[in-house]
């Protein structure tokens, strides 16, 4: 317990030093969707660890097979040395003199996010974990999105060469390793080949509807677009929303615009291809339209979490 308190104080003192003077930090390490949890073994094997695993082990929505939110490495406080300190995402969990929840950036490395959750005793710690269960996912995911967007921005396609983006008066950061499949002026499809399949990005507009009607028509609109623009490998086949799987639809905001986020599975009608999709239907009232930004992946026999994460990072660069 004393180790955890001392460790928390160390973080706060480093942060104070950063406020007084600029420190030269090492480059952080770690893949996207990875998390190092600093918690003593006894707590990791006990109820606090069970509570954390229940949160982190919750599956990412819309994937064909269950994949956890994060790939996790756990280390006790005494083993928290340089190799772990440079991890991009750090979660410190343990006991302290008071209940604590803090999020700080760039403590030991950059870019880095350090979240601290402490409780005065086991009951308090469990309450703190439960109180911040959404933050544990959302804060680290948001930070990873921002880091990944900066990585993607190193080499981008020029929007002014893409007819559909110009016609719709929108921009989106498409990495240079994506290739044009279709660009009609009304419908955009770019594809990136990966080791076991491909990743795909779509942009198009629809007539505006009442809010309730938007949510209820997302799957049907996808099927119409699929039939018109996204043929399958055999005659008469095309992409549709998987009929046997109800997609997850959530009201959200995308760059200050009201939108619906839809995560689900696609399949090819009259064929056997399938995979996950992520659809953002954005309400653009000023221009009396809906804008659709969608990513979908075809990667049989491969994990798809990180592929869909890349597509999400791309879509979230959109501007009208």
Structure description:
The longest helix is centred in the middle third of the chain and has 20 residues, at 133-152. Strand 8 (179-183) and strand 9 (187-194) form a beta hairpin. The strands form three sheets. Strands 8, 9, 10, 11, 12, 13, 14 and 15 form an eight-stranded antiparallel sheet that branches. A five-stranded mixed sheet has the order 3-2-4-7-5, with helices on both faces. It is built from nine helices and 15 strands. The protein is α/β, with parallel strands linked by helices and 320 residues long. The chain has helices at 2-20, 41-44, 47-56, 82-85, 122-131, 133-152, 163-168, 211-229, 305-315; strands at residues 26-27, 34-38, 71-75, 89-95, 100-105, 109-110, 113-119, 179-183, 187-194, 197-207, 238-241, 248-254, 257-269, 274-284, 289-298.
Helices and strands in order:
Blueprint: H1 2-20, E1 26-27, E2 34-38, H2 41-44, H3 47-56, E3 71-75, H4 82-85, E4 89-95, E5 100-105, E6 109-110, E7 113-119, H5 122-131, H6 133-152, H7 163-168, E8 179-183, E9 187-194, E10 197-207, H8 211-229, E11 238-241, E12 248-254, E13 257-269, E14 274-284, E15 289-298, H9 305-315
Parallel strand pairs: 1-6, 2-3, 2-4, 4-7
Antiparallel strand pairs: 5-7, 8-9, 9-10, 10-15, 11-13, 12-13, 13-14, 14-15
Helix pairs in contact: 3-5, 6-9
